[in-house]
Amino acid sequence: MQPQKLDAIKILLFTTFPVTLLIFGGIVVLWKRPSEPLQSTILHFAAGVVFSVVAVEILPDMIRIHDTLAIIIGFMLGISAMLLIKNYTQKIENQTQGKEGSNFLPWGMVVAVGIDLLLDGLLLGIGFAAGSKEGILLALALAMECLSLGLATGTKLVQLGIYKKQIFTVLVMLGLLFVLGTAGGFFMLNFTGEKTLEFVLSFGCAALLFLVTEELLVEAHESKDSPFYTAAFFAGFLLFMVLGLII
Length: 247
Known about the structure:
With 247 residues, the chain is mainly α. It has helices at 8-28, 36-65, 68-96, 107-130, 132-159, 164-189, 194-220, 227-246.
């Protein structure tokens, strides 16, 4: 599929899905914290959804363009970037861990989540630059990931005794980072050729696979495992594979 120039309003509309679920997930824990089984189910489902979008939509476009060198370079840089980001944010978290008191924002965690969402937004922008179908499916997939991220962030802030107003402000700012990343990713690629698209798609593919294996599934397995959770992963994969065929 050739890169398309899409209506900015349409892109903004689909960008609101992940942002809305991010904020909803962070706010809902103010009244009732989701149980561990529910959180694990959401994480497994989100991992299956993201993995499905990579396998069904992104990889075929990479193979179609068929630039082996760009794929190798983009994929290696994608993995390297994710490893560096993870190492950097982990250092920040370690430096601030134990310093948080009542009503003290855990900046290490906030920065880590912000970088994650900025990158997710960038990947969504890349998806829309690759095509309308890819962007829509990726928006729905990242919405599930943002829901789980919002639940985790909100739960942590509540445990630290952060005021409700501060929690809402943090969630809105994180959502704006996602929107900023989406705009940057789309406008960076919408006016470039397939060579650049191939490189960035391979970069995004590596980043999404890292997200699934090193973040979503790792967090999902922090609670006691169950065949039901595993089934949720494959349900997410199957659902979005079918959606990819229908849309």
